[in-house]
Every structure is written in structure tokens, then in C-alpha cells.
């Protein structure tokens, strides 16, 4: 499941830095602009072209076509605040990937932050809607408003969600993480270690990412039933105290637990240590993704990482494709990266 990170593509910003000019100057040279009101000294033009040749820079054809027909502005709308907040550590890699890819195709980013807040969340179509200032828009957030998605699909406005979303009156373009496959792989790994009583602690499956994780768990444990694997506990209760959850897990004779909420996993390990239990010998604890808020811990959890930067990059690629009229491959799931960690081991023999 581990995937190699693609080599970083040289960008116009790199060319500008190496040639000692601005990025707009590089863009003008690449586009062959010779307008009377745009004066680029011949020596500067030749220096830019020399750096381009030396470093093998190839302009992105999509970017060239976008430059000819659009404003080259991509909107970024976040349903939760990301600057600044405790979730910034979680959202930051998405934004890094988005910025890198947007730069690669010569587009600017417009962070849309003025949307009205209704019920504690931003709403796209409440008040002054500025989406159409941008050529298209990227949507981020754990929970996206279904009415917003339906309206955007109906209006045929170019947009891409970062994260899988169910259809909303039509297919929703997205780049998501394949949580179901990642959780299934962790279940199979636990079974290979000898675990037969497997538990799951999730959050209410009211969003696609949580539903996908639980579906992966149930499908994998059902497939392993012939090997004697049973679901010792399947609970969606992030609000319960770790000590209470640990008592419930021990009463169910679970030997391994897969935990969606990272802070819950940290709390379980601390609760086990207070009772003199060893993780993973007495109870293996597996996490299902990166923490959404900072949680101090020295524990090297077994689990998986979400390909957040790559999701951001591919979301930009998908959006620029939609702006070019692409109709195929508008829904993508990327593999997660397995993290071996130290919190999964064979169960202690009686």
C-alpha cells in the first residue's frame, strides 16, 4: 500500500528564482508576449530562455490553454476555519499540495473567507456569493453542506471537493483517500498477527470519510469470519472517557482495537498504562489516519497516513481538467500509506 512520492516538477517560480526575474516575467517570455506595452529587455528574455533550456522546464499545456481563456484564478473554500486554528496542522498539507499544483499550472489562489456563517458553519450560498470571481473552486472540510453541493452540481459550476462525497443530484467531482481499503488492510494485518476478537471505535458515520472507514472494517472482518474472526465491539462513541472504553473493550475480550479518533487512541494507551496493562501485548491499538487536532504523545502508533499533499495536488489537476472540458475520471481515490508503528503485535497467549 506504500506509494512512492512523485518527483517534484520544476515550476515557473523556480525558473524565476534561477534567472533573477519575477514569475510574471517568466510567464510573459513563455507566452511569447511582445506587446508594445510590455517591454522585456532582450538580454532578460535570453537569460530566462537559457535557464529554461538548462533545467529542462516544459510548460504545462493545460496551463497554456487556461491562460488563453480564463482568469487563472482558482478559489479555495473551507467550511471550517483553517487560518489560524488547531486544525491548521491537519489542513496544512492539503494547502501545500494545492499551492504547489496551482503554481505549476500558472494559476493564482483565492481563499474565500467572507461567506456567511449559519449554524456555526460557513455556507456558500448565504449572503454574497463570490465563487464566480474564480474560474473554479476547491472545497475543503470534514462535512460539506449537501444543499451547497446540489446547487453547485445543478449550476454546472466547476468545482472539486478534497475528500470523497456522495452524489448530490449528480456526480460530485472529488479527490479522496481510499479509507475503506486502508482499514481493510489493517484488519488483515491484525488477523495475520493472530488476532481473532477485533474491535472498532469510530465516530458517528454522518460523513463519507467515517462511513468509508467503518465499511472497510466490516467488509474485512466479514471476509475473515471463516478464520474465526469476530467483531468483539463495534461502537460509534467518541464522547466516552478512555477508562470507560477500556473497561468495555476488556469485558468484550477484544485483543485489538481500531480507533478512528486519534485522541481516543492516545487516551486508551494512557488508561491501559494506569492499570498496569501493556500495549500492544495486552491490547493492540491501531489508528485510522492523521490527527485532526494536535494531540501530544510519544506513542508510535500502527495505522496509516492520509496522502494529504497529493490529494491537494490532484484536486487542482482535476479542477483544471474540468475547466478544459474533461468529463472522465472526475472521481479519484488515492491509496493511504501504511505505518508499521509499535502498537500492533500478536495477542498475549493465555
From TrEMBL:
This protein's record includes keyword Kinase: no
SUPFAM superfamilies: lambda repressor-like DNA-binding domains, Periplasmic binding protein-like I
Protein source organism: Streptomyces xantholiticus
This protein's name: LacI family DNA-binding transcriptional regulator
Entry keyword Calcium: no
Key words of the record: DNA-binding, Repressor, Transcription, Transcription regulation
InterPro entries: Cro/C1-type_HTH, HTH_LacI, LacI/GalR-like_sensor, Lambda_DNA-bd_dom_sf, Peripla_BP_I
CDD domains: HTH_LacI, PBP1_LacI_sugar_binding-like
Domain HTH lacI-type residues, every copy: 10-68
Residues annotated as domain HTH cro/C1-type: 7-38
Example GO molecular function: DNA binding
